[in-house]
Every structure is written in structure tokens, then in C-alpha cells.
């Protein structure tokens, strides 16, 4: 994971617009959802760091995640966004992939 | 009552929930029995892949975490002298939602095959995390049906069981293991769990300073009320 570069992270996020995506989303100490599948219609990245990401999906859905600090495009066409505190502990994660994430 | 047979290979089975449970909670005891030639097997229900700590600074993400933590656990096992490691491949934080009968049967099959003298697991209410309590409950149930007797113990945190009355136990329910000669091995195992311990500065102090953070004793709760405690200072 590397600190978010807004332009390239936003470009990677936008690449999911118009297609189906599998999502892993978590607020680490509270909740996670793994492998819900949505059709992404809009994607946004906002802020100057930490960042906020949002998706509109399926014509009626929202997913919004804040406190994002790091990202990575891994070898499997997946975009991994995460928010860490100043001691490396994860607060939030927001992953998008074209295929289901390992169960 | 079981009388230890000196000619027989002594065996210990530990059934825990996450990589690092074995080291952080009872690493001194495992190091001690490992160095004494006890054959040790560890079951980890999960790979700890939903943890918050990802190195400091972070070098892991949610998707790389399971393999990294498995590798760290394999290294810790080697350090502690645990020769067999098995994962149940249950997702971290979901053990309590797993089919309890199936979990109990899997643990029962391992107990049947291994015939361990000692089984370590979590206490089903004092375990401190839902995954811990769930794996402890299933292990207890499997042990009670196994035909073995008197060798089930619950691990406990730090020195809380130096005063067992506070948790509704008496001193007769507790085994106190002297681990004072095994702190270096325990420290090495802590350091093997790098992504979890990098945040704790004390672990990375010079060895003798870091080792001073460990207590001289680890405490175990006798888990099988059908048999008397074997020893106040030994699990076997």
C-alpha cells in the first residue's frame, strides 16, 4: 500500500464505472461486508487527504467511505483503498474487483 | 488418574483462534514443553486476516494478510517447537457463526487421531474475543466426548489467574507454570509475528529489556472437572 495519489487513484476508481464490481467494505472495528456485487454507475474521490470515496450503483445505491489514506492496484485488476492511523492500524477498507474476493 | 509414563512420547494439542494466540498468551509454556521434547500440535481456526494491525508502517492489506500471517505463524511454531500446524480456514471474526457441531467434530477427529495428554484452548466465557470463546466451547465439548480425562486446560491472560477468586475460581483450579527460563524463545516468537508486534515498541528493545516485560509464570485453568488436578506446577 502506498499513500493515495489522488489523480491515479481516482482514475483507477473511475475504471469501474459502467461495469459490475465485487466490493469488500469495512469499518475495521465495527463491520465488514465482503463480495457484494453492484453495477457501478458513478465513482468519486474527494478531499485533500485523508480522502473520501463514493460509488453510486444499481440506479439507487450509495457507498461512501471516508478516512482513506493508502491504495494499491494489485496484479488481479483489483483496486484496494484503505485508511490507516499513524501507527499502521487499519480503520477502514474499500476494495473493488472484477471477480469475487477469496471467501 | 493418569500417571505419566516416562517412556511414552508426551503430546500436547493447542486449539486456538488466531495466529499469535499461542505466542502472546502462552508462548513461554509452549517453549518450555517444546524444549522438553513434547510433541506439539497447533490448530488455528483462522488466519487472523481481519486484524487491525498491518505492520508499522503498514506493509500489508486485507488481501495479502492471510498468507503473511500464516507465514509468521509457521516461523513462530518453529521457534516454539510446534511440529504440526493446521488451519480450519474459517474467516477471522466469524468463528462464532460457524456450525458448532461441525467444528466440534473436526476437533474431535484431531483428538482421536492424536490422543494428546494435554489439550489447551480458550475458556468459553473468559476468552476475551468471540472467536476465542467459540473455539474454546467447541474444543471443550470435543474433549469431553473424546474418552480422555484430566488433560484439558484453558489458557489465561497475563497474571489474572494469580488471583483466581476474582474470576470465581480457587487456587486448586489453577496450574502455574514457571516460564522464567524461556523468555528469550518467547521473545523470538513475538518478533516472528512482526505485523502484529511492530506497533509495540517494547518488543523491539534490546533483548534483556524486552524480556523484562514478560512475567515469570503463565497460568492455566483446569478444564475437566471429572478428574483431580494433576499437578499445581505442570500440565502433564
Automatic annotation (TrEMBL), chain A:
InterPro entries, alphabetized: DUF1806, YojF_sf
Pfam families: DUF1806 (PF08830)
Name the UniProt record assigns to this protein: YojF family protein
Organism: Paenibacillus soyae
UniProtKB/TrEMBL annotation, chain B:
Pfam families: PIG-L
A single GO molecular function term of this UniProt record: hydrolase activity, acting on carbon-nitrogen (but not peptide) bonds, in linear amides
Signal peptide extent: none
PANTHER family: N-ACETYLGLUCOSAMINYL-PHOSPHATIDYLINOSITOL DE-N-ACETYLASE, N-ACETYLGLUCOSAMINYL-PHOSPHATIDYLINOSITOL DE-N-ACETYLASE-RELATED
Name of protein: PIG-L family deacetylase
Organism: Paenibacillus soyae
Amino acid at each position: 500500500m502506498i499513500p493515495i495519489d489522488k489523480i491515479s487513484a481516482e482514475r483507477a476508481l473511475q475504471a469501474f464505472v459502467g461495469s459490475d464490481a465485487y466490493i469488500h467494505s469495512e469499518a475495521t472495528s465495527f463491520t465488514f461486508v465482503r463480495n457484494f456485487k453492484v453495477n457501478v454507475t458513478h465513482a468519486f474521490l474527494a478531499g485533500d487527504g485523508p480522502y473520501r470515496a463514493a460509488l453510486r450503483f444499481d440506479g439507487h445505491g450509495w457507498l461512501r467511505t471516508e478516512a482513506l489514506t493508502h491504495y494499491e492496484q494489485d496484479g488481479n485488476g483489483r483496486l484496494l483503498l484503505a485508511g490507516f492511523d499513524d501507527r499502521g492500524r487499519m480503520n477502514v477498507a474499500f476494495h473493488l474487483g472484477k471477480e469475487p474476493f477469496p471467501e | 488418574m493418569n500417571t505419566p509414563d516416562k517412556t511414552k512420547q508426551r503430546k500436547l494439542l493447542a486449539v486456538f483462534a488466531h495466529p499469535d494466540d499461542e505466542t502472546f498468551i502462552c508462548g513461554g509454556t509452549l517453549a518450555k514443553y517444546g524444549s522438553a521434547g513434547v510433541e506439539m500440535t497447533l490448530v488455528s481456526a483462522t488466519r487472523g486476516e481481519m486484524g487491525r494491525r498491518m505492520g508499522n508502517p503498514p506493509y500489508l492489506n486485507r488481501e495479502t494478510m492471510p498468507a503473511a500471517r500464516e507465514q509468521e505463524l509457521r516461523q513462530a511454531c518453529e521457534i516454539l517447537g510446534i511440529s504440526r500446524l493446521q488451519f480450519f480456514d474459517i474467516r477471522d471474526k466469524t468463528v462464532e457463526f460457524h456450525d458448532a457441531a461441525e467444528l466440534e467434530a473436526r476437533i474431535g477427529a484431531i483428538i482421536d487421531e492424536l490422543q494428546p495428554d494435554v489439550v489447551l484452548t480458550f475458556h468459553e466465557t473468559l476468552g476475551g474475543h468471540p472467536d476465542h470463546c467459540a473455539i474454546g466451547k467447541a474444543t471443550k465439548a470435543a474433549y469431553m466426548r473424546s474418552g480422555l480425562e484430566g488433560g484439558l486446560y484453558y489458557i489465561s491472560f497475563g497474571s489474572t489467574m494469580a488471583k483466581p477468586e476474582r474470576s470465581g475460581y480457587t487456587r486448586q483450579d489453577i496450574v502455574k507454570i514457571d516460564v522464567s527460563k524461556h523468555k528469550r524463545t518467547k521473545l523470538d516468537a513475538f518478533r516472528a509475528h512482526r505485523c502484529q508486534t511492530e506497533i509495540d515498541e517494547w518488543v523491539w528493545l534490546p533483548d534483556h529489556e524486552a524480556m523484562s516485560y514478560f512475567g515469570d509464570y503463565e497460568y492455566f485453568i483446569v478444564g475437566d472437572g471429572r478428574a483431580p488436578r494433576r499437578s499445581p506446577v505442570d500440565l502433564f
